[in-house]
Each structure stands twice: as structure tokens, then as C-alpha cells.
Amino acid sequence: MLMEEDPRYLEATEYLLLLEERLKKAVRSSDDVVSAVNTMGLIVGNFGENAHILGDCEERGAKVLLGAEAGGLGQAFRQVGAAASSLRGPAEEHARQLAAAFRAPLKRGLCLVQAAKETIDLRADALLKLQTTRARCEQKRVRLETALSGGTPSAPPPATGAGGGWLERLQSVTKLAGVSSAPASVEDMQRESDAAARVQREAQERYDVIKERMATELPRLHAELEVDLNAAFASAAACLKGLAEAQAAAWEAVMPGCSQGA
Predict the structure, then answer these.
(1) Would you place residue 89 in the very low, low, confident or very high pLDDT band (cuts 50, 70, 90)?
(2) Cα dihedral 137, 140, 146, 151 sign
(3) 10 Å Cβ neighbour count for 190?
(4) Cβ distance 110 to 23 under 8 Å?
(5) CA pair distance 200, 155, nearest whole angstrom
(6) E strands of the chain, at which residues?
(7) Mean pLDDT of all residues in the chain?
(8) In angstroms, rounded to a whole number, what is the distance separating the alpha carbons of residues 64 and 56?
(9) Which of 54, 66, 110, 200 is deepest in the core (most CB within 10 A)?
(10) Residue 260 to residue 248: CA distance in whole angstroms
(11) pTM for the whole structure
(12) 193: burial class by Cβ within 10 Å (0-12, 13-18, 19+)?
């Protein structure tokens, strides 16, 4: 009789697969956020330098054309340029903070989920081997009991179907295990049955160890992810808030009241 996994465990594996895909997208988005903030710092910095140059040019031109009546437009351009240039440093610093406190935890979370997926694959492999060894052990036991009762061991039935799944592979392995090129003695059958039982016990122990470890590791993994991801998004919110405040302060110094809501 083939074993089946716990439905709750199967639901958990489906959740991990979905979580992996979501985290991959979140990591890519965090890359975009860090890059955008850093790029914004470069852009406003370049804008500030150009505005300062424009201010110098405007002031010289105004003096030539207007003389003593020249206004302060050049000075205004330089003030705007200074405000914009002052934002390069904060943007670069906030980009570094986002990379460390937002992007890095997301990447660590993705690595944790992918490590859990590897354990899921190990468990699936252990279950398949356990099912294979259990079927083989049962076949050896029945063959031995038939021989001890004086009967003739029956040949395995021919394979049916052309499926390529693990169930078909399992059936083909167990059927081949019953084929013998020459009649075996009862002693040989006993040794084979004992060996098959030993292999089954080892497969059962391996599967039980993985199952027991996952029973504690999956909840721990989820709790750790919950804490790390919540902290990552909280850090991102605080960092972006600080960047917005720095921008508002820079422009408020040039145009008082511009940051006030309508």
C-alpha cells in the first residue's frame, strides 16, 4: 500500500512555492527602489550644478544688458541649484540604507525559502524510496511465505500503461525485483526478505528524521520570515519618509511654504 503525505504538509509546500515566487518579485522590486533613489540623487545633483551655472550666466548677462536695473534672477537660480545639489548626499545615504535594511533582508528571506524547498525535495525523495523499499519488502515476504507453505511463487503481472510518473517507476522497480533467472532456495529467500526488511527500516528512519525535523523547522522558518520581512518593510517606510523630509526641507529653504498642503 502506497503512503501519502499529510494534506496539511502538502498545503505548506504549496505555500512555500508561492512565497518563493512572491519574494523573487519583491527582491527585484527592491533592486528597482534602491536604484531609483540612488539615480534620483545623481539627477538632482546634476540639475543643481546646471542651475548654479545658469545662475552665474544669467547674472552676468543681466548686468551687461540691464546694468544697475538687473534683478536677482541669477541668484534665484543659484539658490535652486544649491537646494538640488544638497539632496544628492541624502539620496545616496538613503539608497545605502534601503539596500542594507530593505533589500538585504528580502534576499535573506528568499534564500531561507529556497533552502526549505531543498528539504522538501529531500523529503519527497525519501518518501519515494520508502515506498519502493516497502513494496519490495512485501514482495519478498509473500514470496518467502508462499515457499514455506509449499506453494509456487507467482510471477509478477505484466506492466500496463505507458505513464512516466513516479508511480509507474515504482511499480516497474518492484516488479523487476520479483524476477529471478533461477529458482531460489528457501534460505536465499529468507536472506533476501531479511535484507529487504533492513533496507525498509533504514528508509523509514531516514524519512522519519526528515519529517520530524521539518515539523519544527517549517514553523520556525515562517516565524523568522515574518519578523524579518515586517522589519524590512518598516525600515523601507522609515527610510523613504526620511528622504521625503530631507527633500521638503531643502525646497522649503528656497520657497518657504511650498511644502504646506493646499
Answers:
(1) very high
(2) positive
(3) 15
(4) yes
(5) 22
(6) none
(7) 84
(8) 13
(9) 200
(10) 9
(11) 0.71
(12) buried
